[in-house]
Amino acid sequence: MRFSILATLFAAIAPGLAVPSPLKARDVPSDELSQFKFWVQYAAASYCEANYAGQVGTKLACSAGNCPQVEAADTKIAFDFSNTTATDTAGYIAVDSTNKAVILAFRGSYSVRNWIADVEFPYTDPGLCDSCEAEFGFWNSWAVVRDDVLKNLNEVVTANSDYELVVVGHSLGAGIATLAAADIRGRGHPSAKLYAYASPRVANLALAKFITDQGNNYRFTHTNDPVPKLPLIAMGYVHVSPEYYITSGNNVTVTTGDIEVLDGDINWQGNTGTGVPTIEAFSAHHWYFERADGCIGAGTPWKRSY
């Protein structure tokens, strides 16, 4: 799908979907910033093969050096999943005894550049709420591993009942994490927190509202990153609210003044308002407090082989 066609669709539909009035941005408390920087390191660790194809009981580590706080914590893999399904959904469940947290992390795609140019984003009914529709690929990526993940997650949470449950992901991993968190909350874990960095749109209006109303959602975008702009609004997709919009450049230290908290399933003051999605803007996709996909391997295959 050429970007000229995407641009035409975006330009034709966007004006009619603008919010009726500007939504005021909120400030980020300084104590939250450290949490944002911490949890993205677990998302970064999901790209490292040794973590998503590792051994239960081993310590998490990042060969790219982009998860120092995770490496410093007493964190061990409790369950990992990869290369077992047609969707190649990969990730891990980890137990962080230092910070008293159980983490479910989903790896982002190695083929995201090809995905950006793909116009096919069909809907499916996830069975989460009335009139709710999810993007088929993202939902299926969760559905194919759900039974195994939930079985192990329930066991780990039961064994660590005083720990918080956190679901994380970057890029397409964030899209899967968003739908997984929504599902998990309805399956005995209502307080699960979601940290979704650079997530694409995954839901129609009804589902986005359902997930927003669940609360505990932290969805991050960065300047003109093209991934959160897809699938297109013209296709009926919108975002979970709020948006934590990072305005600083690539590879710089993010401060509280560099983040705007924006409400609404469509908000033109944030990433959505920075223009049509283009490959030229892809550099912004890497930088979310860290080089989030620093462990990514060479090439961008649809499904990795070992």
Features:
single chain, 306 residues, alpha/beta, Rossmann fold, two-stranded antiparallel sheet, 9 helices, 32% helix, signal, hydrolase activity, AB_hydrolase_lip/est
Describe the structure.
The chain is built from nine helices and twelve strands. It has 306 residues and is α/β, with parallel strands linked by helices. The chain has a single domain (3-291), classed as Alpha/Beta hydrolase fold, catalytic domain (Rossmann fold). The strands form three sheets. The chain has an eight-stranded mixed beta sheet, with helices on both faces. A two-stranded antiparallel ribbon has the order 4-5. A two-stranded antiparallel sheet has the order 11-12. α6 packs across α7 (172-185). The longest helix is centred in the middle third of the chain and has 24 residues, at 136-159. The model is unreliable at 1-23 and 299-306 (pLDDT under 50). Residues 104-233 form the Fungal lipase-type domain. Keywords: Hydrolase, Signal. One of its GO terms (biological process) is monocarboxylic acid biosynthetic process.
Low-confidence stretches: 1-23, 299-306
User: Which architecture per CATH?
Assistant: 3-Layer(aba) Sandwich
Q: How much is the average pLDDT?
A: 87
Classified in CATH, the superfamily is Alpha/Beta hydrolase fold, catalytic domain
Proportion of β residues? 15-25%
Quaternary structure of the protein: single chain
Number of strands: 12
